[in-house]
Every structure is written in C-alpha cells, then in structure tokens.
Amino acid sequence: MALQGDFQEHLSTLGRLGVEAFPVKDEEGISKVNALVIPGGESTTMGILLTRWGLREIIRERAREGMPILGTCAGMVLLAKQVENIEQPLLGLMNITVRRNAFGRQRDSFECELDIKGLEGPPFKAVFIRAPVITVAAPPVEVLAKIDDKIVLAKEGNLLACAFHPELTEDTRIYRLFLGL
Ligand code: GLN
Asked: Is the pLDDT of residue 101 over 80?
C-alpha cells in the first residue's frame, strides 16, 4: 500500500524474493493484488487517507475473503481493532489492542535479537522505530514474538502484524512467513 510511508523498501525486498510487487493506492490497485503489505509510516495519516480515498471498505472486504496482509509498524496499528488512548481511523481487522510509540520517541529506536515462534535458524535481528506494541491479543490471535510482556509479532489467520521493520534488514524470513500465507 503506497499511500504514505516506506513502501519502497518493501517493494525492493519483495523484488529480491522474486515476487511481482507494485505500489497500490486506489481501489483498482487493491482489487488486483492477491496479497497486501501495509508499510511503516504514520498510522494517523494513512488511516485518514484510507478513509478519504474510499479504500477502507475494499481492503476490509478482501481481507475477510482471505487476502493475506502484512502490516509493519504503522501498518500493524491500522490492522488493530483498537488503539490505546486515541481515536483514529483503523482497518480494525485483528483482535488486538495496540499502544503507539510504546518504547518512547524517535531517539528510543533500537535493534534487538528476537526469538520468533515457528522461525527456523538464529534469532531475528529486529529494527524498532517509534514502534507500537500489542498490549491485548484475544483469540484467535496467535502470539509469535514478545519483548518482555510486549507482543511484537502476531498472526490471525491471513493477517500478520509486525511491530518492527523487516524491510530494513537482509533477513527475509518474515516475508517467507507472509508469502506462505
Ligand atoms: N509511531 C508510528 C505510528 O503509530 C509508527 C512508526 C513507524 O511506522 N515507524 O503511526
């Protein structure tokens, strides 16, 4: 989804994986893809644009029909049913509550080694930039990674919510997980 944010980085990673990927920002685009990445950026801005450009309903409909969606960082916020302490337009597709900027401000961005359920090999080097976290995950959401009590990767059926930025590191295992959906 190319309304705003770092969609270019996602496009290049998908390209490297041999996936035919292109930016979409209107109804026609959304109806053509068979999977969607919602990038990091500003969830408030993206939510407003989604609503203004009439994309919210078609994305919700396609998701309900089974289209896989990977939401990273701000994209994860948009997938949530609820955001703590703030009213903003959301897609509201996953049974999760998120807290924005849960680790602090821009200068509190960091990298860490993350153990991810179901991912083979060494820990995943995850990049967090003003990252949100999931504070409540209700069934049928499956928690795949946590930092202390903060959920940073979760899956609900065809939907994958990721608090960090897999598009900014070389490790493509999160994309493989997504493409497997
Ligand atoms: N804090 C931003 C938001 O909630 C997300 C930051 C990011 O996507 N890197 O919209």
From this structure: yes
